[in-house]
Design brief:
globular, 8 helices, 279 residues, 5-stranded mixed sheet, D-Maltodextrin-Binding Protein, domain 2, 8-stranded mixed sheet
Length: 279
């Protein structure tokens, strides 16, 4: 690989990641603490806590509040960077933060304690930092290119799964995507004997692949703020992912795929997706 194209191999790039990584981790905890406070207060404001953007697509006042906090903190710390958030959009550049203030908003709005903050950093077109914090469990997943992946500071790795009939997968469909093709794909995957689950947070699904709790994850479409942090985690934990940023993935999204290497090729063929080459 050309070192000029690899953010993790250049001394200058390594320094940029090293400067940003601890701030992203600290900020994820701060934003998660705000999520947790608002979640525990939700019953007092049940009538005003959420509205719908589309079918099963929630937005809460807390989404905007958390995104504003993260945006201000990051751009104050790194005024030359740009910011792309789920709620208020933003700009992209050679150094862009990509943030989902609450991934799992439907869970948050309904009182289900399974949601997170997701913070990714894209350097020269490569997702290079991924931090996901689940405040209700106090779990901080963190990774940066060349630095490995951790959960609360301890190294994590993907599972040793080699058989789909003994695997646990998260397989999802975005409501904006056609249903028929998804159902046909899902039938093929289920025929293998794999167990299928869905817990309402794409970011946490991918993080759980990195931690070896789930063996693979596929969804027909996600936006970059939902998945980039998790994909960094999986790569650094030894897993296989698709080239999510191909085309206009950063702004328009793409399918996502993440899996333990022992099942990755077989699962990718079943769902009809190409896996990125190992670095």
């Amino acid at each position: 690989m050309n070192p000029l194209s690899d953010p993790g191999s250049s001394p200058d790039h390594s320094s940029e990641l090293a400067n940003r990584f601890p701030i992203a981790c600290a900020l994820a905890r701060e934003a998660g603490a705000l999520q947790k406070r608002r979640f525990l207060e939700r019953d007092a404001a049940l009538e005003t806590v959420y509205k719908f953007k589309g079918p099963q697509d929630y937005i809460t006042a807390t989404d905007g509040e958390v995104e504003k906090l993260i945006r201000q903190r990051l751009l104050n710390a790194f005024p030359g960077d740009t910011f792309l958030g789920e709620e208020d959009g933003g700009q992209v550049s050679e150094r862009t933060w990509v943030v989902d203030p609450i991934d799992g908003t439907s869970n948050f709005a309904r009182g289900i304690a399974h949601f997170c903050v997701s913070i990714a950093f894209v350097l020269h077109g490569k997702a290079s930092i991924g931090v996901i914090y689940q405040p209700m469990l106090d779990e901080l997943f963190a990774a940066a290119t060349g630095m490995g992946a951790t959960l609360n500071g301890e190294p994590i790795k993907v599972s040793n799964a080699t058989r789909l009939d003994r695997s646990l997968l998260e397989v999802g469909r975005a409501s904006r995507q056609p249903q028929a093709a998804y159902l046909a794909m899902l039938e093929k995957v289920m025929t293998t004997g794999a167990a299928i689950r869905g817990a309402g947070s794409g970011a946490l699904a991918i993080a759980n692949v990195a931690a070896g709790r789930v063996d693979g994850c596929y969804e027909t479409h996600m936006y970059s703020w939902d998945c980039l942090a998790g994909l960094v985690l999986v790569e650094e934990a030894g897993g296989r992912v698709n080239d999510f940023l191909a085309g206009d993935g950063l702004l328009k999204g793409n399918p996502i795929f993440a899996a333990a290497p022992g099942i990755a090729e077989e699962l990718a063929e079943l769902v009809g997706i190409s896996i990125a080459e190992n670095a």
